[in-house]
Amino acid sequence: HSSEEALRLLRACDVSCAPVYDYAQVAADPQVVRNGLLGRQDHPVLGPVPFVRHPLRIQDMESPMRLNQL
Predict the structure, then answer these.
(1) Count helices and strands in the chain by DSSP H and E runs
(2) Which of 48, 53, 18, 14 is closest to 33 using CA atoms?
(3) pLDDT tens per residue, the chain (70 residues)?
(4) pTM for this one?
């Protein structure tokens, strides 16, 4: 079965379920995009490096995440 078929069958049986996304699907998910959960930071050697932002945010405060801390 495809994911869509499996979800349809499970939901028809009143089973709580959700799809499991790969990285590309997560990055394209409208809610992930709308909430700004993915970021990019420039690295001097690697160029732009994607990362997952911390889900908790304080208004007007930038994330302390820095690639040199990895």
Answers:
(1) 3, 2
(2) 53
(3) 899 999 999 999 999 999 999 989 999 999 999 988 898 888 999 999 888 887 777 777 665 655 554 4
(4) 0.57
